[in-house]
Each structure stands twice: as C-alpha cells, then as structure tokens.
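Hi there. Long-time user, first ticket. I'm pasting a complex I've been working with (about 808 residues overall). I'd like to know whether the download I got is complete or cut off, because the file seemed smaller than I expected. Thanks.
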Amino acid sequence: MPRKKSRSDLVVLSRNAPALHERVALPVSERHLNFGDRWGYAPAPEAHEYIKLQKRYPLFIGGKFVAPKSGKYFDSINPATEEKLAEIAEANARDVDLAVKSARKAYKNVWSKMPGRERGKFLFRIARLIQEKARELAVLETMDGGKTIKESRDIDLPLVAAHFFYYAGWADKLDYAFPGRTARPIGVAGQIIPWNFPLLMAAWKLAPALAAGNTCVLKPAETTSITAMHLAEIFQQAELPDGVVNIVTGAGETGKALVDHSDVDKIAFTGSTSVGKILTQAVAGTRKKLTLELGGKAANIIFEDAPIDQAVEGIISGIYFNQGHVCCAGSRLLVQEGVFPHVIRKLRDRIATLRVGNPLDKNTDIGAINSRMQLDKICELVDSGLKQGAELVQSNARLPAKGYWYPPSFFTGVTASHRIAQEEIFGPVLSVMTFRTPEEAIERANNTPYGLSAGVWTDKGSKIFKIVNKLRAGVVWANTYNKFDPTSPFGGYKESGFGREGGRHGLLPYVTLE
Amino acid sequence: MPRSLSIDQVMVEERAGAFAKRSIKTSAKLSGLKMAISMMDLTTLEGKDTPGKVAFVCRKAMQPMDPRYEVPPCAAVCVYPNLVRAAKRFLGNSGVKVASVATAFPTGLMPLKLKLQEVRSAARDGADEIDMVIDRGQFLAGNHNRVFDEIAATKEACGAAHLKVILETGELQTYDNVRIASELAMRAGADFIKTSTGKVSPAATMPVTLVMLEAIRDYFYETGIRIGMKPAGGIKTAKQSLAYLVMLKETLGDDWLTPDLFRFGASTLANDVLMQIAKVVDGNYQSGDYFSLP
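Hi, the file is complete. Here it is re-exported in full:
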C-alpha cells in the first residue's frame, strides 16, 4: 500500500489530470475536425545511403552493358530534389538495330528452341532475385520516379515479383492455356513502357513475352530508366541467355527507331493515347502485331447505399495513389446527389490527413510529381478548371521548396462539358460530378472516349452486377479500387487501347495459335 | 441527410491495417507513448481482486514510473463496484479517476432494476466513471429500442458520473452491428463508447475501433457533440498502442488526442509502453524486472 508521505511527487504529476468533458453540442460553425500538429510524426526516412548508383548507365544489349553508338547521354533527375542522379545512355537507330539483331539471334538459336520448362526456370530465378533485392529496387524506384517508398515497397515490388512468378508458371503449360491449339511464340517483341510504374510495367511486358518464348527489346521511359538497368543486372545474375532481353534507353526518337525497325514482330506500348495513335499509324501496313494500353478517365460511382466511409477510402486510393499518375485512376467521381454533401465533407477532411513530401519518408502518402513537364500539364488543366468555373478544394499541405509537387486536390461544380471532366490530368486532381439515378450514372460513366476502368460502390450485390455489365470499361472494381493481381487481365475499351495484360489473356498478344 | 450505415468489411480492414504501417520514431514515439500512458484506464477485473491488489494498481496509475522519465499518471483505475471505495481512498486527490464496471458486468443479463441499483451504488461510492455493458442478447434479438432505453436509464442513474457504454463487439460480430450499436449508444447518452469487456475474444481490434471512430465522427458532424472512444482488451504492446493513436489522430483529428476523449482499457499494456519509454530515453532495453507490476 502507498505510504502517505510519498504523495508529494504525485501532486506535481497529476496537474495534467483529465477534466472530463461534458456532452456539449458545438454550434454548426465549430463542427469541424482539426488535423494539425498536436502530435506530429518525426521524420522516418528509409535508408538509402547504401544504394550504389552508377555515374553512367550504358545500354544492355546481348547480355552485356555497352556504351551507346550515339555517344550521347542524358541526365536522370530525382524529381523530389531536382538533383541529378546519373547519366543515361541515349540509344539511336544503330543501337536499336544492334539490340533487335541480338534479340533475333537469341530467339533463333536459344530461346525459341528451349523447352518451356527450362524457360520457366529462368523466370522463377528472376522472380526470386527480385524478391531478394526488393528493398533496394524499391528505394531506387522512389529516388528515380518520385513515388513514395510506401507504395514502391508494398505495391510495386511485390507485384513485379508476382508477375514473374505467375508467368513462370505458364511457361511449361502453354498447351493447356489454349486447349486444342498450339501456341507458338511470335519472335522479337519491341516494348515501350511509361514512367508511372517503371519496374512493374517492365514486368507486365517482359514476363508474358518471355514465358511464351519471345525475346525482347525494352525501352523504358526517359525519366525513369535506372531501375530497368538494375533489372538487367538481375538478368545477368540469373544467367538469362544473352540477348533474350535487351534494354535501350532514350526518349521518343529511340522509341520511334524501335517501332520502325523492320525485324520487330510485335510492338507493345503503354502510354498516352496521342502516342498510341501515332504508333498505330506507324505499324499500319506492316506485319507487326500491336497492343496498346493507353489513357483513361475512369468513373468512380458512389451510390447512396454505399458503405460511405469505405467509399471515401476508395476515392482516395482511386485518385491519389501514385500521385494520380495512374492510367486507370478514378479521376471522375460520380456521386449520387443524396449523399453528395456528406461525401464531400468526408473527402475534404480526408485529404487534410494526406502527407505530401519526401517520398523516401515511410509516412509520406503523396510523393513528387514525376517531372517538370507533367507538373506543368497538371497546373495547366487545373487552371482551365478554374477558368471554366469549377470550385477547387486543396489540402493545405506544406510543399517542399525544391522538387516537383502538387497537393491533393478535387474540383466540385464540374459538368461533363468541362475540360477537367474530359481530359486525363494524370495528377492528384479529382473531378467530382453528381447523378440522380442508376441510368444516369451509367450514361455519364460511359460518356468518354476512354474505357480503361471504372469503380462502383454500393451495398447491393445485384446492383453491382447490373451496373458493371453496362459499363464500357476493361476493368471494373466493385467496392474497391486500384487493385492489381497478375492473374487478372487488364486493358481497355475504345481509346484506352486494345489487348490484355495479366492472366491467361496476357499470353495471347505474345503467341500465334495454330 | 440520408446515409447508409453499412460497413464494407474488406475495405475497413484494409484501412485499419494502413494505420499500423505508419512509422513512429524518436520524438514522436516518446510523446506518443507518454500520451498512451495518460490515456490508460489501468484495469483489474478479476474474481480474486482485493483492496490489496487495488492498492498496487492505484499506486502504479498515480506514478507509473520514476519521475525522471516525466511520465504522466494514468487517466483512471478500472475496478468492480465492490472495490470503488478502496480505489477512491488510495487515489485520494491525485486526479486519477475511478472507473467502475457495472450493470451485471460482463454479461449484462440481470433485471434492469438491479443493474440501475448497481450503477447508483457505484456512483455513490465515488466512481467518476461507469463502464456499462449493453444487453447483447436483446440487441441480437433485434430489440434495439430496449437496448436504447437501458442505456438512457443507466445514464440517468449515473448522475454526475460519466458513462462508457461497452458494446462487446466480439459478440456482435459484424461491423454493421458495431456501427448500429455505436449509434444507439451515442444517441442514448453515452459519453464514451467502448469495444469490449476483456472477457470475450476477440476484444478490441483496429477495424472495430475504426468503425466506432467513424460513427463518432458522423455523430459529431451531425450534432456537434464529441463522444469519447475506449478500445479495451487485447492491446498488449506499445507498438499497438501507437497504431491506435495514429488511427485516432487521422480519423478524428487533434481534438480527440486527450484522455478526455480517448482511453485504453488495459491491464498489461502499461509496462510494455514504459519499457519502450525507457528505451527511447536511455538508449537501451531494460529487463522487465525493473518495471513494477500493477
């Protein structure tokens, strides 16, 4: 039992003792939540000092790192600091030709002759090596592209490994993928990938192509080439036969050289719809096969009977995931009028809790915009929204002085005629519109040249099935958003492209069926 | 404003899991851990409780650790009604509150008249806070009005004492039920809503607590009244307690970061938190033997 005299020190400590609150109703004007600094999180940076960046990244051709014939290099910038990370080789038409020749040689002599079971072993080995180096690759991905370490660590890298594992499993089972048909590889695939998920897009392209017996020439996006070159190191460690994967870095000209090369059998492209249209013209009249995964302006539809708090989380992951640099982002929010004020109030509070800043900090929710060019594009579209009379709501997140940043934002008072309702912003900016009936929701959702993805939020299972069958979109998420899995096919309708990646469907663009 | 009370299980569990991924380091860790201590209802609810055991708990609550660590006292001590007087005596004017479970804790399966007598008696003995249980049988049988009326009657019987309403979410099972029970309790006069008795497994979980915090948020939007939250049972580590505080901060904001509006109901959590405080301050882990048992 406590002795009485020991009370003296306790009196001091108990000064802060709680005074119980009373059930007092605050006036309407004071009914808001305060997301301030009462308990601020200390910096929690992911270690990156051990990462060894090369000063110059050459090309990867024929299983070797080689200097570009062009003799040219360009800078790769960390968008969070604007500091130069490394120099990247710029491949010209001669370099691309060497890469295609090396891929052709590997296809003819090695890869197409190798039994699927043996090809599968290489893919399994690559997948395991990616898992082993996952943290290092995640840090590199974050430094090079500006995405948060939280996402590169928990989403990008696990999915990259999962894709290689998944297609490794198909390599010796192609006879069962297409019963009654014989699946033969196409040959040399030219693959051009975007900057929003650099490693993941490389995995989406390479894994099914290799599993089916093709060889590849991959061109990463010019702002995010570094992790692709580290992936090349993994191919070397896995002793993947020389020339099976070749990586040529560079910008639009390099991509054009690859598309125009006469010995490429297939072009796979992920990127903007405008470039997709140019590519379609370029391969028209050739024997080249083509698949395109392009832009989107997805409708995320919230019905009155939706689980609202979870739907708000779906809005957040729909538009603010990866700074909104997501082709399938839920960038058009359609809210049923009855719950509109409620949803907006919650959304306003929710974006106040999003942490913007150093992407290497483990608590950062929104990282850096990938490039100055992309930031300018976002700003231009937001200006158009303001000029056309929409109301902008932004979090008052403090943005770092250096680097490319944009706070989480949404527009209300948007109509279908606004540019921000029609064009892909590809940033953390949401356009919110309302609807009254399910019929109207479907009509508005489909009122776009795009058709990549959509989201539906309702507690009624029957409504989900009714609505999703009427949405012209390649992927529809019900009561969730932006979920990916290697077993699930992904791809678009209309101007969002054609061809599917992922799942058994993802093998089809890389085989001819006999 | 029409609004759906339904909860999507997958998404709410995913959201709750995300809070636990926040990395709370150095100064934030230290202040968070101290805040957790200040929000603790140090609890002893055993059939073998005696005034002697309650003395241990009270002393620990008043001064959890050597003063050089500058750790605040716990918010309250939580005991059975028979031990309220003893707890009150030991705590004196230290500022640490006495919370008493009541209403036929932990089942609530007794006539209302007797439950109210128990509440009045505990309040008369000096309990500052009453932790009541709802009648889960009535709730699951669909008699929501009955549950509402019992809570309202209990609130009245509390007098000046504050009322925490235990939903026993482990028995309600679905998040939809948790949400409905939270609404009932708040509308019937609860000052706090509380997850569990600690006698049923699972007790507090992050997703259940999140559903209740979101119910509190909607009630605040609608009425301007701030209701408190108390997860109880099953929170055993300092790391868990920080994850709960992260969830609180990012769901209800700064105004709820106070023992007035948030409590941890726990019997073994305190020493793990204190051990982590010592680690942050001294730089190394100390043996459990250096931390007094409550």
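A couple of notes from our side: The two ends of chain A are 88 Å apart (CA to CA). Residues 191 and 268 of chain A are 5 Å apart (CA to CA).
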